[in-house]
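User: I'm putting together notes for a lab meeting next week and I want to include a structural view of one of the chains we've been expressing. I don't have a solved structure, so I'd like a prediction I can at least talk through. The sequence is below, exactly as it appears in our construct file.
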Amino acid sequence: MRISRLADLSAVGTLVVLIGLSFPGMALAQTTPTQVAPAAPAQAEPKLETFGRWSTLVDEVDTGQDIRKTCAASTAFVGTGGESGTLTLIISNGDALPPDAYPSLTIAVDNKGLPTGKTVAATFGDDKGRVGVKVHSDAPINGRLSWTADNQAKTSLALLRAMRRASALDVAFGDMPVASISMDGFTKAYRNLGASCGFPTADVAP
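Assistant: Thanks for the context. Below is the predicted structure for the 206-residue chain, given as C-alpha cells.
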C-alpha cells in the first residue's frame, strides 16, 4: 500500500501496520528474479480523514473481481505512566459486518509492566459504566506491546457504545490502569467507517 507519505503520523502509522498485519494479502506483490508478476490494476490512494482526536484511513484494493476496502480508525493517547499509545478499530468489507460482527479493537502502548498472555481481563468505560472484555497480547506494533480484544458481537457492541457515550474512555488491565483515552471525534469517525465499508452504524452512533 502506498502510504509512506503518512508515516510521520503516529496514529496513522499504527493504522498502516495493523492493516498489514490483519490483511497481509493487501501488501504490494513482491517478485523474485525468476518470476514475472502480472500487471496489477491501478489502485486508489488511501483516504485519510480526521475527526477531533481520531483519524480514519480507508484503503481500497481492486482485486480484479471486486473492490476490497479496509477501514480503520485510530487515536493516539498518553498512558498513566506517560507512555505513548494508540487505540485502533479495523474492519474490512470482506469480513462479517455489523450487526453480525464489529470492528476489531487493538491497543498498542509502551508499557512493559502490563500483563500479557492469551487471556487478560480488561475493562473499558467511565463513571457511568464499564464493560469487561478479554484481551490477548499480540506481536509488538511499531515497537510497542499490543493487545487485541476478543471480538464477540455482543461484547463488541457494548464496548463501542461505551466509547460513544464516554468523553474519555478509562482502560484497565486487571487492576492496572492503562490510560484515559479521549473519545473526541469517535462518533464521526465510526460513522465514517460505516459509510466507507458499507455497514449500518445506528446501533452504536445514531
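A couple of points you could mention at the meeting. The mean pLDDT is 85. Strands lie at 47-51, 54-62, 67-78, 84-92, 104-109, 120-126, 129-141, 144-149, 168-173, 176-182.

User: Perfect, that's what I needed.
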